[in-house]
Amino acid sequence: MAKKDYYEVLGVNRDASEDDLKKSYRKLAMKWPDNPKAEEHFKEAKEAYEVLSDAQKRAAYDQFGHAGVDPSAGAGAAGAGFGGFGDAFGDIFGDIFGGGGGGRGRSTVYRGADLRYNLEISLEDAARGTETRIRIPAMEECETCHGSGAKPGTQPTTCSTCGGHGQVRMQQGFFSIQQTCPKCHGTGKIVASPCGTCSGNGRVKKNKTLAVKIPAGVDEGDRIRLSGEGEAGVNGGPSGDLYVVMQIKPHNVFTRDHNDLHCEMPVSFTTAALGGEIEIPTLDGYAKIKIPGETQSGKVFRLRGKGIKGVRSTTHGDLLCHVVVETPVSLTSRQKELLVEFEAISNKDAARHNPRAKSWMDRVKEFFAE
Predict the structure, then answer these.
(1) Which of 72, 170, 303, 329 would staple 319 via disulfide (CB 3.0–4.6 Å)?
(2) What dotted CATH number matches 6-83?
(3) Angle of helix 38-52 relative to helix 55-64, nearest 10 degrees?
């Protein structure tokens, strides 16, 4: 019986890419789960995929057809070693779940875990930038056994259960799914004489000191990534990364809003009424602000460029000073007499001297009159 065209079997065009071939192969794997002829279909699809996914075999097939890949004709070995239905499912599911073609030929390699370190810095350091050193605990490769887990002078042996692959294949009916080897736990090796330093783990917990350069303008929650400074990998896997997360300490004077700074500016009763000049702090020293007469509590004075230049900004933010008119306390008898006299004079023309209070009282009267 003549074989079907491989492109027809997979349902792809002759110029199909490798991804197209793989997608079609996976799709066919799910097409006939209850068909009694499923194994025949899968053998056919597997044979087509193994030929067309190999560049040399595909070129031979495109030029000579099935004769170009017929092992009996000496042109290749595409037909040799085709596995059964279970192998087809094992390859497909292994690829989907990251097994890499069934996981044959290597033990499981794990990347080390990423670590997070919360670093608390002052507002001044966040604005100007700084360099500091941090001490972190992490799992690092054991220096005694160099990560093998075996006692010096000995070597790990290949796991007899998985043959050093780190995974075993569990078959149930037509389905074949690979799992982590229960004996070696995915390492592919057995340590008969464990290293005394790491107890066979290949890694030990250590504290290490790292220098961290903090750029000017960092804000709350910003992260600095230190590549490869996380935990060591397993079985030669790469180390993870360390993420240093910024936490800004509360400041006694300023609060930060992105690149702007805010502060409260207490102003005396007389300065607010008569006007004057006061000094306020900034991150660069003191600055003077002229307070016009009759300034009310809550008024905001903006000092441009006296904020923070963010990491991704081209200009500085502003400093916003919020006026808080301070009521005098601990008054002497003479001060009280003067204030009583001042109040009496003010009440003779309340609309002029206290317009907001007068307006508010008028609205209250209207409310009760309705």
Answers:
(1) 303
(2) 1.10.287.110
(3) 100
